[in-house]
């Protein structure tokens, strides 16, 4: 009944098949895992406490080990020992019990250890015979930190994994009372909940499960939006924390709302980009009722919560600052006749790129090697070869993985192994830190590691660079944690730092690391550490600490080829790379594609080289044209040998050998039969004309490609009727996808959705992972782009009306612009490795991966063809460049054509998957060699004949396939036969049997014409060759057979082309005439010379005329002759055909004469033109410096103005006017300002350009402030002792005090409730005072500014006035040194200042609040500020005091509307904007249910539907099979019932059931044709209910059924 379709299996590799299998396995594990029952005794101390681990695997993060959820787990990386995980209990405790619940990957040998400092550990339990499962251990020990230290794995191929790590005991000092879940077992309600078929308990996933305290039970809603679940707390609470523990069906976008009456709800928190797991939400809000209101699901299922916990706000805790983002307003964007949807939060969207600094703006490239930093708190593996790095809980892990090893089963070349060391900084709290992307280049990324919004460690990683470039905010903070046996050495390889505590002062040292990889092989690797002069290196245990010298903050680390190279790498270590660019140019006249790599450097130390080093991959050094700059240094790597290049730039050149969309007629093949081809073409049309729409754009591509190839075949055969029918089908498919027609149910999922969060276009619905996982964009859209190029070459209506939409897809894949506001530059292409990665984020230990190499090339071939067709050189050239570079990498790294990329003991002929740091013989979806080889050869079209340019290697590859297969192919014939034909077409033709292709794939017949055409073309034309090439046309391919040359040429233009061919010496050997819109097969060596030159090329013109200019000029050169090549010189010589090719604007920054000449094949050269530029740039006077700078001051200020330009004059103003060289007071001496003044200054000097204007606004606030702003305000602190809480320092009582723990640092802060200009503080110390401390001010309780610094304090009462007022809401004392051996202790902490923005109008209240309503709604808007005016909008725009309708009274809305309102009043600050999204949902009177949309079923399957509306139907229906459907009936009454069925059994019959009641019985035998069958009417009650379609007689297929009233 169900037949495997090999090609279809491919794309379910990472999204469907794996996720389904994983879900099934996890379900079995969950069901088999016992619920944790906590015994009486000491309390659980570890619940949701901070956790660190040696490593994490995937999404199995450390927090999941202490969340009391046995359905989640922590897991370490695979195949590495030792591994550990520890929990910070927050304070010292006596530990008496540790509870471990292991997943199947358990530890055979492990210890339980305790520590007081997370550095020195004491073992309190040890075993070497662990058996996994539940380990409930009685222990005895004391410490703040508890660690599980694992040294031997039970499963050698995996790591360690814990469902739960629970620590019990008693704290040694009093602790604040444990928070109480005030929602536990309180009354609940929900919008819906499922009644799943797998249980007879109707409450199995009801609302009451959401707060029952049982983490194994859950609430689960129906699968539509919106949904909500609410809890009645019984009385009004001030809520401080909400914890949502999501099942895998999580809420992506939701509100937390509170209410006093269960009717009027207020949103207090909004999440737009949730990722599931456990969401801990900090708020301060009051209400009796609290609910989660979900408006966008994260999966296709409903919302499912294990637990919904609510905790009261704790007085003294800081009040969280909660920003409620506006709800995105969905819109449809029209592009020509097409359109796409955007800004709809309910659509599938990528993981939000959360971890980025403000420097990173959208659009953001995906599909690279560093993007995992963006989506994870730290990162997965980052592979800036020759390094492999990863941000971990211990810092940045570093190793040079080398060439790796072949696994015991021979299927993997792995480099797995423990890091050699970690780079970290001591001023980061690892419990709070995250990594963020701060910037990137074409082959580099700059990232920061910090525990706040500042950067504390910044690292630039450059692909190919043997250096990691680092900067620190604290010169004394860097340290390296050594993870293996280490020896330090100097330039002469003498051992240094040999003993613990040893110190050396130097600017560089070597590090020799002896480590063991996962193959248990010892590896010795060398590194260099390069620092400022005078740096102090100290070895302390397993750490190397650094005090960077001279107050500098930089450090570079290099991986060395050997110890002997330390000094050479030292010479280049201070050329820090700040940016990288890979640029290209395509030269039609030579057929060469040139790629230039340029690294911009910043020299950190004078006297050292400003040139960097780069290790080149084989795909680069084999084509490098600057070979003399290659050194003798090399690195073994997973791709082969990397060779070191010295210098900041190099370039490589490769030959472009042509792309055509289809071959000409293979009439020279003796077995070619035109009648067979026509029959095959008709088969393709018949198969697809009524079954052409797939609900996944990738699988739709499997229709687009054979249709496109068939069109070109039919056109050449003169079969216009067949061609036009194929064109009609192709156009229907493409225009459907390229037009948004209203979404579900009319258009879903056949439309495109643009995600602004990254800047990407995807197919909504079944998207093959290209949405959430951002994967495979090139694979998917390549089919659409290629097919569009073919369709548009025949259909100018499609080109004109849908070409804009096609170019949206092109820009999503291969955008030629670096400045596009919507899409990144060439999304997934890695120009350094020459690979288009498949994964969106590279989120694995080994970085990113790629398996379907030819599908990537197919996308760029499509972009190239579109560029040729539309005469768009940018698209054409990007396609040419990427195609040319990537084909080299594919031949080297996947197919080992040169036999130097793979180790000798790797016995397979191909790599199925290439990862950043490993190779795999396999695919995501199959271990069959048909698939492992074939995935690199599909789809079949002439672009993939590049494999045949080396026919011997192609033959060797096919022979290796047969060896790996153990015989000839037994599937994927339409892929494997064409590849075999590249080297042996006769053998392939002898196998031709179209029935095999049909049997291989249920839709295989559509592949018949293209497969037949391809293999016969190879027989007719011979093997590919680059000996013959065209100097004026690129859409051709050359072949040779028995010494005779043939070319296939495609001309999609409207004019005849004369294509000139040359041999390897560059001499013309012939010319072929190609009529418009034709594919021609010809002999290129026909001896025909090009026709006489037809006119003269138009002379170049310059965008800027000759002349004298006072600044640099960007000069563009153009010729009116289309397609002309411009050559130019800047040295005064006349340009020739070999001079510099003009590719873009020339930056003229000095005196220059440019001469230019234009050339075009078959035309006379233009005359030479020239332009003479004189650049006279005056030196500019430096900008003045005004002291003091802008700020608020409490006393009169003396103003001084200085300038560094000798002999300059300064003028200034104090009245707000702009100073000039003739306006303002000439500055002669400092002057005093006693009131608020804006000082502006300019410097000027004869013969120089005036300086820029500097400004300082000096606010003088001399009014003494006597009000203590901190009195009785909310306070918090790092620690307390003896019950002396933080609030005691702000209670106005000098007999109460705050007291901290006895260690540094400590802090105490106060929330002033709103922003103030803080001018000073008063500290009343107890004897235990602060010696060294800072007074800091913050606006967000996260980023702190130093307002005052104290050193050498002696306590007592300190009245502190700030030199400059500091603005903020929070004030704290941050102490770093104490006057006594005790802690810090303050009787009182007073704060003084003036209020900021204290007259702001209150925010309007809109009723009704955001929600879905079944009837028209009357909207009212109120504001509590007397005499304020309210303006509102209903079009999604932001209202202001001048924009929007003035509110005068209630108004009614009848359609879904976003109402926004603002209040304003003269003399006051405008209010914040209020917003309410009011959805009006009037229920339909017709319910049409697609058969495949069941919520549960038994015995049936789904298949592609050949009914008129396509899609899917339910099939394989036998007697007793059934499907359940959840429907929402709008009104009680009798409904007409129709079924759309194809029945062939005389007894075929359907019963419609509601529970045990049969509503109707209907015969559905339709004599094997699709027919609408009417049943007797059925009675239904209003509301949501589940009905069952029951097969009381099998033998039919069901497409849909409909209930109408």
TrEMBL record:
Superkingdom, according to UniProt?
Bacteria
Q: Which Pfam families match?
A: CBM_6 (PF03422), CHB_HEX_C_1 (PF13290), F5_F8_type_C_2 (PF22633), Glyco_hydro81C (PF17652)
- InterPro entries, per database record: CBM6, Cellulose-bd_IV, Endo-beta-glucanase, FA58C, Galactose-bd-like_sf, GH29D-like_dom, GH81_C
Specify whether Membrane is a keyword of the entry. no
Kindly state which reaction or reactions the protein catalyses: Hydrolysis of (1->3)-beta-D-glucosidic linkages in (1->3)-beta-D-glucans
Every copy of the CBM6 domain together lies at 1487-1604
Q: Look up keyword Disulfide bond and say if it applies.
A: no
- Record keywords: Carbohydrate metabolism, Cell wall biogenesis/degradation, Glycosidase, Hydrolase, Polysaccharide degradation, Signal
Q: EC annotation?
A: 3.2.1.39
Q: Which CDD domains match?
A: CBM6_cellulase-like
| PROSITE patterns, alphabetized | CBM6, FA58C_3, GH81
Pinpoint the F5/8 type C domain residues. 31-170, 177-313, 1253-1394
Gene3D superfamilies linked to this entry = Galactose-binding domain-like
Q: Which family does it belong to?
A: Belongs to the glycosyl hydrolase 81 family.
> Which PANTHER family has this protein been placed in?
ENDO-1,3(4)-BETA-GLUCANASE 1, GLUCAN ENDO-1,3-BETA-D-GLUCOSIDASE 2
Q: What is this protein called?
A: glucan endo-1,3-beta-D-glucosidase
């Amino acid at each position: 009944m169900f037949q495997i379709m090999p090609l279809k299996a491919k794309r379910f590799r990472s999204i469907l098949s794996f996720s389904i299998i994983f879900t099934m396995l996890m379900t079995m594990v969950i069901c088999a895992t016992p619920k944790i029952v906590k015994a009486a005794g000491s309390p659980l101390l570890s619940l949701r406490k901070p956790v660190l681990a040696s490593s994490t695997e995937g999404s199995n993060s450390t927090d999941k080990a202490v969340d009391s959820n046995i359905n989640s787990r922590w897991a370490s990386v695979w195949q590495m020992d030792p591994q550990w995980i520890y929990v910070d209990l927050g304070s010292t405790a006596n530990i008496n019990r540790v509870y471990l619940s292991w997943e199947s990957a358990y530890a055979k040998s492990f210890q339980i250890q305790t520590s007081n400092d997370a550095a020195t550990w004491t073992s309190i339990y040890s075993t070497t015979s662990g058996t996994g499962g539940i380990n409930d251990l009685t222990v005895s020990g004391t410490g703040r930190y508890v660690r599980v230290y694992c040294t031997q794995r039970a499963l050698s191929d995996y790591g360690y994994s814990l469902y739960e790590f629970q620590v019990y005991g008693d704290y040694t000092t009093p602790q604040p009372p444990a928070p109480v879940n005030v929602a536990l077992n309180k009354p609940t309600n929900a919008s819906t909940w499922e009644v799943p078929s797998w249980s007879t308990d109707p409450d199995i996933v009801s609302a009451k499960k959401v707060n029952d305290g049982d983490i194994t039970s859950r609430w689960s809603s129906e699968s539509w939006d919106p949904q909500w679940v609410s809890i009645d707390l019984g009385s009004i609470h001030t809520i401080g924390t909400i914890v949502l523990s999501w099942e895998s069906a999580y809420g992506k976008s939701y509100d937390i709302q509170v209410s006093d009456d269960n009717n009027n709800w207020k949103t207090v928190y909004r999440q737009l980009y949730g990722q599931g797991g456990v969401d801990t939400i900090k708020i301060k809000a009051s209400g009796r009722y609290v609910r989660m209101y979900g408006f966008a699901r994260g999966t296709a299922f409903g919302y499912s919560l294990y637990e919904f916990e609510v905790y009261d706000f704790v007085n003294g805790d800081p009040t969280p600052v909660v920003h409620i983002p506006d709800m995105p307003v969905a819109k449809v964007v029209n592009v020509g006749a097409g359109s796409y949807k955007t800004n709809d939060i309910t659509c599938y969207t990528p993981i939000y790129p959360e971890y980025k600094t403000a420097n990173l703006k959208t659009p953001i490239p995906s599909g690279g090697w560093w993007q995992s930093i963006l989506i994870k708190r730290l990162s997965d593996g980052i592979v800036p070869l020759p390094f492999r790095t990863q941000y971990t809980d211990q810092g940045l892990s570093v190793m040079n993985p080398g060439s790796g090893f072949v696994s015991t089963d021979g299927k993997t070349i792995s480099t797995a192994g423990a890091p050699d060391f970690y780079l970290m900084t001591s001023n980061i709290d690892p419990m709070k830190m995250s990594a963020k992307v701060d910037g990137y280049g074409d082959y580099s990324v700059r990232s920061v590691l910090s525990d706040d919004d500042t950067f504390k460690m910044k690292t630039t990683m450059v692909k190919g660079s043997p250096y990691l470039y680092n900067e620190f905010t604290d010169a004394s903070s860097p340290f390296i944690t050594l993870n293996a046996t280490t020896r330090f050495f100097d330039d002469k390889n003498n051992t240094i730092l040999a003993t613990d505590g040893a110190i050396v002062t130097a600017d560089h040292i070597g590090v020799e690391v002896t480590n063991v990889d996962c193959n248990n092989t010892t590896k010795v690797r060398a590194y260099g550490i390069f620092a400022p002069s005078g740096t102090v290196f100290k070895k302390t245990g397993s750490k190397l600490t650094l005090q960077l010298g001279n107050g500098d903050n930089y450090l570079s680390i290099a991986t060395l080829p050997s110890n002997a190279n330390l000094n050479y790498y030292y010479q280049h270590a201070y050329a820090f790379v700040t940016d990288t660019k890979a640029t290209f140019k395509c030269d039609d006249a030579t057929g060469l594609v040139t790629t230039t790599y340029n690294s911009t450097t910043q020299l950190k130390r004078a006297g050292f080289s400003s040139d960097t080093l780069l290790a080149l991959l084989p795909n680069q050094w084999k084509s490098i044209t600057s070979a003399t700059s290659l050194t003798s240094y090399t690195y073994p790597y997973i791709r082969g040998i990397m060779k070191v290049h010295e210098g900041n730039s190099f370039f490589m050149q490769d030959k472009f050998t042509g792309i055509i969309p289809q071959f000409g007629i293979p009439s020279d093949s003796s077995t070619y039969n035109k009648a067979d081809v026509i029959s095959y073409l008709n088969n393709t049309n018949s198969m697809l004309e009524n079954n052409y729409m797939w609900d996944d754009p990738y699988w739709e591509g499997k229709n687009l490609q054979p249709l496109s190839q068939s069109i070109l075949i039919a056109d050449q055969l003169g079969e216009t009727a067949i061609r036009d029918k194929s064109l009609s089908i192709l156009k229907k498919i493409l225009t459907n996808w390229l037009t948004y027609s209203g979404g579900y149910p009319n258009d879903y999922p056949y439309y495109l959705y643009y995600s602004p969060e990254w800047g990407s276009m995807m197919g909504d619905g079944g998207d093959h992972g290209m949405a959430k996982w951002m994967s495979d964009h090139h694979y998917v859209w390549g089919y659409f782009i290629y097919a569009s190029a073919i369709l548009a070459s025949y259909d100018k209506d499609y080109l004109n009306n849908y070409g804009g939409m096609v170019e949206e897809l092109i820009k999503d894949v291969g955008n030629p612009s670096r400045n596009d506001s919507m899409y990144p530059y060439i999304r997934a292409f890695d120009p350094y490795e020459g690979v288009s990665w498949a994964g969106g984020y590279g989120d694995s230990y080994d970085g990113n991966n790629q398996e379907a190499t030819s599908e990537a090339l197919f996308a760029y071939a499509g972009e190239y063809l579109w560029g040729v067709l539309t005469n768009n050189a940018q698209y054409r050239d990007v396609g040419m460049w990427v195609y040319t570079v990537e084909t080299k990498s594919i031949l080297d790294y996947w197919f080992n054509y040169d036999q130097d990329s793979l180790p000798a003991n790797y016995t397979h002929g191909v790599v199925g998957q290439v990862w950043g740091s490993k190779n795999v013989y396999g695919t995501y979806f199959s271990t069959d060699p048909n698939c492992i080889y074939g995935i690199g050869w599909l789809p079949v079209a002439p672009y993939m004949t590049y494999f045949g340019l080396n026919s011997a290697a192609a033959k060797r590859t096919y022979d290796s396939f047969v060896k790996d297969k153990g015989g000839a192919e037994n599937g994927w014939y339409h892929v494997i036969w064409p590849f075999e034909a590249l080297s042996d077409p006769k053998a392939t033709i002898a196998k031709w049997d179209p029935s095999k292709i049909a049997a291989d794939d249920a839709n295989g017949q559509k592949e018949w014409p293209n497969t037949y055409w391809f293999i016969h073309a190879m027989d007719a034309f011979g093997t590919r060759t680059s000996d013959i090439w065209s100097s004026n046309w690129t859409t051709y391919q050359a072949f040779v057979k028995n010494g005779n040359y043939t070319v296939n040429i495609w001309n999609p233009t409207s004019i005849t082309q004369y294509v000139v061919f040359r041999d390897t010496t560059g001499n013309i050997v012939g010319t072929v005439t190609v009529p418009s819109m034709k594919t021609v097969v010809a002999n290129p060596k026909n001896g025909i010379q090009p026709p006489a030159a037809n006119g003269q090329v138009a002379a170049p013109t310059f965008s800027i005329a000759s002349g004298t200019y006072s600044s640099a000029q960007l000069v563009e050169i153009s010729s009116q002759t289309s397609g002309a090549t411009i050559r130019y010189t800047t040295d005064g010589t006349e340009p020739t055909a070999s001079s510099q090719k003009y590719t873009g604007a020339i930056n003229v920054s000095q005196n220059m004469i440019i001469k230019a000449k234009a050339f075009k094949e078959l035309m006379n050269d233009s005359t030479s033109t020239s332009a003479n530029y004189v650049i006279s740039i005056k030196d500019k006077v430096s900008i003045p410096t005004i002291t003091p700078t802008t700020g608020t001051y409490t006393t009169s200020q003396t103003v001084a103005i200085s300038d560094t330009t000798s002999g300059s004059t300064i003028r200034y103003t104090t009245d707000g006017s702009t100073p000039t060289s003739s306006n303002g007071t000439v500055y002669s001496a400092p002057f005093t300002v006693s009131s608020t003044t804006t000082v502006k200054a300019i410097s000027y000097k004869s013969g120089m350009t005036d300086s820029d204007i500097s400004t300082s606004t000096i606010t003088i606030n001399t009014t003494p402030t006597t009000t203590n702003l901190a009195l009785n305000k909310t306070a918090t602190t790092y620690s307390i002792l003896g019950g002396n809480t933080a609030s005691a320092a702000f209670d106005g009582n000098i007999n109460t005090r705050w007291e901290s723990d006895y260690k540094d640092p400590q802090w105490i802060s106060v929330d002033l409730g709103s922003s103030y200009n803080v001018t000073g503080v008063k500290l009343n110390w107890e004897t235990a005072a602060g010696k060294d401390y800072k007074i800091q001010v913050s606006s967000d309780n996260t980023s702190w500014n130093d307002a005052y610094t104290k050193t050498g304090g002696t306590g007592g009462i300190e009245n502190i006035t700030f030199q400059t007022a500091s603005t903020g809401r929070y004030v704290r004392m941050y102490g770093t040194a104490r006057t006594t051996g005790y802690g810090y202790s303050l009787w009182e902490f007073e704060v003084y200042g003036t209020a900021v923005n204290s007259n702001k109008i209150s925010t309007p209240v809109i009723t009704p609040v955001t929600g879905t309503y079944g009837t028209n709604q009357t909207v009212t808007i109120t504001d509590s500020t007397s005499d304020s005016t309210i303006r509102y909008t209903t079009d999604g725009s932001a209202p202001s005091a001048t924009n929007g309708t003035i509110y005068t009274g209630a108004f009614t809305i009848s359609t879904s509307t976003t109402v926004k309102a603002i209040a304003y009043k003269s003399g006051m600050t405008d209010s914040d904007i209020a917003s309410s999204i009011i959805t009006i949902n009037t229920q339909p009177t017709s319910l049409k249910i697609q058969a495949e949309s069941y919520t549960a079923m038994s015995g049936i399957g789904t298949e592609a539907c050949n009914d008129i509306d396509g899609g899917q139907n339910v099939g394989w229906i036998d007697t007793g099979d059934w499907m359940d459907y959840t429907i929402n009936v709008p009104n009680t009454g009798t409904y007409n019932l129709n079924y759309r069925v194809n029945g062939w059994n005389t007894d075929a019959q359907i019963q419609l059931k509601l529970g045990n009641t049969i509503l109707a019985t209907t015969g559905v035998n339709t004599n094997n044709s699709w027919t609408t069958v009417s049943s007797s009417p059925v009675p239904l009650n209003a509301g949501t209910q589940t009905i069952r379609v029951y097969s009381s007689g099998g033998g039919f297929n069901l497409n849909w059924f409909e209930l109408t009233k």
